[in-house]
Amino acid sequence: MPYEPPTPPADLSTEFVNSLNESSPDRLQDIARYAEALAEYKVREARLEEESAEDDIDDRPDDLPEDVPMKATITIKEINDNRYYYWQWREGDTVTSKYKGPVNPDE
Predict the structure, then answer these.
(1) Which ranges are annotated Acidic residues under compositional bias (predicted)?
(2) Please, are residues 77 and 83 in contact by the beta-carbon 8 Å criterion?
(3) Residues 28/10/41/21 CA torsion (nearest 10 deg)
(4) 69-90 burial string, b = 16+ CB within 10 Å, else e?
(5) What is the distance between the alpha carbons of residues 48 and 73, in angstroms, rounded to a whole number?
């Protein structure tokens, strides 16, 4: 029973497959170790990025409206001798504000 060479994945380019086929066994083992380490690194980075995105969602203040970005800060504006809280954030060169509520809810 003759030993057959492995079949490369269909999505590898012919140029890449030919380059691998021309490599020595030692070189192929180096490539395999590097490819395995690179795959582990990328999986870890993707997992950390996903966890970070989940943390951002978990850290979102309860009173922050959905249409207000996390980077928004609360500012106080005085209008007709009354003080009000506003969410405020920058979008490019524009500062955007969204009403939050009165500073003194009893007033």
Answers:
(1) 51-66
(2) yes
(3) 10
(4) eeebeeeeeeeeeeeeebbbee
(5) 26
